[in-house]
Structure formats: C-alpha cells, structure tokens
Amino acid sequence: MSVFDDDDDDAEEFLKKSFPIIYRVAPPVLTGWQKFFDSKFEEAFGENEREELQYARKIFDRLQKEITPRGIIAFINEMVSLRLAVEEEILLRYIAVFVLAKKQILAEPVSQILNREYLAGVEPIFADDENLSDNIAALAYHVPLTSASQVTLTREIQNSLRSANGVRLKELSLHQHFINILEEVIAQDDFEINNAVAAINALEDYDPDVIPSERITGIWDELCAKETGGSLSGQKFTRTHGLLLAKSSSERCLSLTKYLVKEIRQAEKFSGSMYYHALSSLDECVQENHLDIDLLSLISPLKKAPEIFQDYVKAAQNEYKKSLVSQR
C-alpha cells in the first residue's frame, strides 16, 4: 500500500521535513548493454539463433524505454516462456515484438493486428514482412500458426461486411480459406444486412475457378434468409432487395417476394402511394431478372379508407387495378 497514494508532491514534502539531507541516486547507466544482451540471449537460445538475435536486439533497443540489466533479463525470460509455449514455429523476432508491445496489442487485438499500430518505432524492420500479422495473431490468440491466418481473415471479413467495404472484401477473396470463412461469418455473425449485401456484391466478377458459383449463390441465399427473418422497415423496395432477387436461387427469390408483399401490405402506417410504388418496383425487378414469379397471384384484395384509396389511385393512375386496392 502506498503511503502517499502515488502523490509525488506529498512524498517530497514528507522527506524534506523528516531528513536534513536527501541524496538522489540516478538510475544506473548500462554501457555496452549490447554485449550483455547478446550473452544473455545466446545463453537462453543458443548460438543457432544469431540471425534472430540481431532482430531481437534492434527491437529491444527501439521499443524499450529504459535499458537496464534487470530489464534485459526480464525481456529474455519472457521470450523463453513464449518460445516454450509455441515451440519453434514462430521466429524469435515476432516473439520479441509481441513481448514489448503486448499491452497495446491485447487491448485491441483485431485493430492492432490489422493496422500494425503497435509497430511504432520498428516499422522499417517489418516493412515487407507478409508473415507478421499471422505470427502476432498466433501469439495473441494462442492458436497454431497454421490457424492464425484464419483468425485474422475472419476479423477482416467481419469488418468488411459491417462497413460495406467491397473493395477490401474482393482483395480478401484471393485467400485460400476465404470462401469457407465467409460462409461461416455470414451464417453466424450479426451485421447490418444492407452493408453486407453491398460488400458481397463487389464479388460479382469473382474467379469461378477459385470460388465456385454455387457457393456464392448459397451466400446470397443465406443473406436472403436473414432478410426475411425480421420485419420490413416501412413500405419500401430497396436496392438491397433488388440485389437479393438478382443473385439468389429461384426458391429463395420466391420466399423473399412473398415476404415483401406481405410486409408492404401489412405496414402499420399504410400509405396508398408508397404501397403502389413499392409493389411496382418489386414487379419491375421480377421482370428484369426474368424470375418465374406471378406477382399478382400473391396479392389478395385490400379495402382501405377513402383517403388512402385516393392516395393510391393518384400514384397508380391507369394501373390502379393491378394491386387490387378498393375503397371501403
């Protein structure tokens, strides 16, 4: 327990009143620390890790604020502990970075691993290193190196879907595990459907030799199922609905169409003009995509108050009979 609660002013005042003479001892300056570092490193890892020693020393020099014998020993001891945990699949240079930037990395592992902000001070050392993210992910998540890329890929796909970043999602599609992880994320993750649809649409010109078309259709079907699982916000036919109808299987298209008709007709705040425009846009999309759906057969007659009926007729004009709305 601290007597002064970390208050330096109180502590100094107390010392002045208690002791007539106060000696200040400067922290020890470690000259030639590199030799001490090298000897402790080789003692811990042997002479076969000399290349990694060069990396570890540079990283320690740039990321460690105060260099002391105790600090060097603590750093190397922690590296030894991690090396024993991961064996030799992860190079010591990555372990060195993780040890010194661990607090920052673990505070926000996803953003740190993706953005590499934790590298402040050692960026040049890892400028062209494509393996850095996977190795840091393996250390942060305690997973084998072979699985680490899937961990980071999962996070990147989630971020792309949530932010409607189709450009990034298309870049990620070149990864060998992309389609497998994308399917898992679509099935399990919680995201804004409009953003996810916008991002997935960027995969339109994907390579069928890399991603089978039936699996992409399956993803659209899953998105379609998610859309029909909730309530429609207002009497609207959106761009998202149009993309889902254009990309999904015929079975899912029919399910989505039935859902839209039902939600548009049962809207709590029913508007005659919005009712007409929504169903008209839906019908236009069905025709444009040559869907085998008879929209009129899904619409049962509606009777509405005079003011709603008039609003509907004004919008529909000569086509007012198509949606089977009459006046009460």
Protein described:
The structure is a single chain. With 328 residues, the chain is an all-alpha fold. Helices cover 61% and strands 2% of the residues. It has helices spanning 8-18, 33-45, 50-63, 69-86, 92-107, 109-115, 132-141, 145-162, 166-172, 178-188, 193-200, 213-227, 239-247, 250-265, 272-288, 306-316, and strands at residues 302-304, 325-327. It has a two-stranded parallel ribbon with strand order 1-2. The radius of gyration is 32 Å and the shape is elongated. The mean pLDDT is 86.
Main features:
single chain, 328 residues, two-stranded parallel sheet, 16 helices
Walk me through the topology.
Blueprint (H helix, E strand, L loop, with lengths): L7 H11 L14 H13 L4 H14 L5 H18 L5 H16 L1 H7 L16 H10 L3 H18 L3 H7 L5 H11 L4 H8 L12 H15 L11 H9 L2 H16 L6 H17 L13 E3 L1 H11 L8 E3 L1
Parallel strand pairs: 1-2
Helix pairs in contact: 2-4, 3-5, 4-5, 5-6, 5-7, 7-8, 8-9, 8-10, 10-12, 11-12, 12-14, 13-14, 14-15, 15-16
